[in-house]
Design goal:
eight-stranded mixed beta sheet, single chain, 6 helices
């Protein structure tokens, strides 16, 4: 394994790193996605009964991963925290979240020991948007990767972690990334919010490689 994306929810892989996964695959790298929850706190939009949402979101993720041509996909079943101010019909969230399960560190580390990725791509310490699951996933991935893999953060262009690598996606890659995002149909409102607030992040992905400085146009691998 060359590049393993470790994120909390189905759809995080497509929004933040869909282009990176596709470009890495084109470069001959072996890629994977490890998702720590099944996204049961997401909206259903009436597309399925609430109790079916975890299964549906995993199926959406499998379709997105196929579009992104990843070599490895695994979904763990730690709980998905309800986002602050959550509204609308949602799946069977318990009120607990990924932050309540620090044992996830060992679960991630076990996968790293087996897969031996060179790079682990995850959220920065602030979770990029403050979501408690994003913050927890970042912390767990960093701890699990110590001595095993180089951690890379997917970051906002204007965030506290400076961009060290920027990927401007060619049209063929952007088209496939959009196809991957479109597989997450139950999360269409999140997709629309992302399009409204950060449209440029569809075709430009930005990353921070700890220990480096300056901006490079292109990948870190």
């Amino acid at each position: 394994m060359d590049l393993l994306v470790v994120v909390p929810h189905p759809d995080d892989e497509s929004f933040g790193a869909g282009g990176a996964l596709l470009l890495a695959k084109e470069a001959g790298l072996k890629t994977g996605v490890l998702t720590l929850t099944r996204g049961e706190a997401g909206r259903t939009l009436g597309l399925c009964p609430p109790e079916e949402l975890p299964r549906v979101r995993v199926e959406e993720l499998r379709r997105a991963a196929a579009v992104l041509q990843v070599d490895y996909l695994e979904v763990l079943d730690y709980p998905n925290a309800l986002p602050e101010g959550a509204q609308g019909e949602r799946g069977p969230a318990t009120g607990r979240g990924l932050a309540d399960h620090p044992e996830a560190v060992e679960a991630i580390r076990g996968r790293l020991l087996r897969l031996r990725p060179r790079f682990v791509l995850t959220f920065p310490p602030d979770g990029i948007n403050g979501h408690p699951d994003h913050v927890a996933a970042s912390r767990y991935a960093r701890e699990a990767a110590q001595g095993l893999a180089q951690v890379v953060y997917l970051v906002r262009p204007d965030g506290p972690w400076p961009v060290t690598h920027r990927l401007r996606l060619p049209e063929r890659v952007l088209a496939r990334k959009l196809q991957a995002i479109a597989q997450h149909k139950t999360q269409a409102l999140s997709v629309l919010k992302f399009l409204e607030m950060f449209p440029e992040r569809l075709w430009t992905e930005t990353f921070h490689l700890p220990g480096t400085s300056g901006l490079r146009e292109g990948p870190w691998w």
